[in-house]
Amino acid sequence: MISGETPTLVDFSAEWCGPCKMMKPILAEVKSKMGDQVRIVKIDVDKNPALAQSFQVQGVPTLIVFKNGVAQWRQSGVVQPSKLKEVIEGIK
Fold it and tell me: With a threshold of 0.90, does the pTM exceed it?
């Protein structure tokens, strides 16, 4: 999925994480505004620790945008919808 031409935003999060819960409506807003221009995937680090470790996720939430299998942008913490949209549009 991350190796495709469409930018894929991966949200590494955890159920117990307060800031992660704040990202849910933000990601929904980005998806509703951008539609098919972006794929959004949520990864629970507690259920997928090996995957989180392979991307060196130290804290949650960590957001990584991939295109053609390469990480193009990465940030930890809550990111506002306008910033995410700007980042994704810059990658296309």
Answer: yes
Residues noted as catalytic: 17, 20
Residue 61 preceded by cis peptide, ω within 30? yes
Each residue's pLDDT expressed in tens, for the chain with a length of 92 residues: 899 999 999 999 999 999 999 999 999 999 999 999 999 999 999 999 999 999 999 999 999 999 999 999 999 999 999 999 999 999 97
Which residue type sits at 30? V
The full set of domains in the chain, from first to last, is 8-91 (3.40.30.10)
